[in-house]
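Model: You mentioned two targets. I'll fold them one after the other.
Researcher: Yes, keep them separate.
Model: Target one:
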Amino acid sequence: MKTKQLTLLLLANFLIIPTASALTGSSLLEYCKDVVEKNFTFHAGSCVSTIDTTRKVLDKYQTDIVGRENAVCFPNEVNSADGLAQLVEVVSKYLEDNPRSLGLEAWGLVVLALVESFPCNE
């Protein structure tokens, strides 16, 4: 049973990573428009999952990703549906305000948007 689970995890890893790294800011912005317009499509799910997964990784490994501790401090609400909607709005606005960066990988742009929008008060 453990071998089957490990095989599935490895397979999922190979299927997900190339897709996630190929997603650009332009595509993410289009996908997130579906969320904002409450069109719950596959693309809307891709928007939410890209942003939420990046947020979780950033929260746990921000020193490695940003290069310093306490670069970003998320409010507790981000773990709720309303909090996810706020993150989608924040990232969408960042993408709209930075059209020259839309050709870059989406996850990096999400990191930039979140660090800019949720700085820690030191």
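Model: Target two:
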Amino acid sequence: MAEFIIFSLLNGVGYGMLLFMLSAGLTLIFSMMGVLNFAHASFFMIGAYAGYMTSTYVGFLPGLLVGPLVVGVLGAVVERYGLRRVHKLGHVAELLFTFGLAFLILQGVQMIWGVIPVPYQVPDYLNIPAFTLFETDYPAYRLFMLLTSIAIFLLLFGVLTRTRVGLIIQAALTHPEVVGALGHNVPRIFMLTFGVGCALAGLAGVMAGPVLGTEPSMAGSLGSIVFVVVVVGGMGSLGGALIASLLIGIVQTFAVGFDYSLADLFSAFGLKSSTETLMGEVWGLTISSFAPMIPYLLMVLLLIFRPRGLMGTRES
């Protein structure tokens, strides 16, 4: 049991920090423009493919720089020449624009790399055990992902709270007219913030690609979870996104490992449940089979009892 708890906790925190890297960019973008970027997970996918191409010709570590840089520049271009032009038309136009952009990115990826997964592998020097506990090896690459995610969080938090640039960005998010009156170029701040948010998604893609598989469906599989994280944490709250990411990552990871059902619980108390009826089949379902539903169930419950989210100031 101790082995299960420790390794599930490590995997849950690692998965949660990966979700945070994705949701942090989306949270910044929502705070900045008040729009949910439906194409955010597509930038995550582009980062994975950029990492794959870079690792093929140069190596994995350069991909950690090239991937986010490519995605960040692409995001800044999208904001400058696309999203900024439709911003004045309202939120519906913005949502339609990002939804169409996600579709175009998906089709472009399929045209270039095909529909089957590409051979994006963990580098050999990280494809080793980091440590052994209870006779079980913990992969060095997962530890690398965890430490890198924590470092990115600390860097992001430090920049936003301890530097002049971060203070200007935070002020521009809440009081753009005042920041503009002080002589700062607010549209450029928005463009750079949008680019940084996309770059964070790209970095998450570079690191997650070898583990989750680099294929066109990866954007769709994680995209919905990211929106759940943003809603649960609170729209526009970076701290809420961190808490929600860790909460969802840990709970879902533990749920996957529990192969118990309500029928087992009844049996532990000496009660018998029939599996011949419809309700009996429901009681026989294991907790692991419900694991993919847990984030969405958590979101529904939170929207009912706390629509603002855990730390949000807006109504979700």
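Researcher: Noted. Anything on target two?
Model: The chain is about 75% helix and 5% strand.
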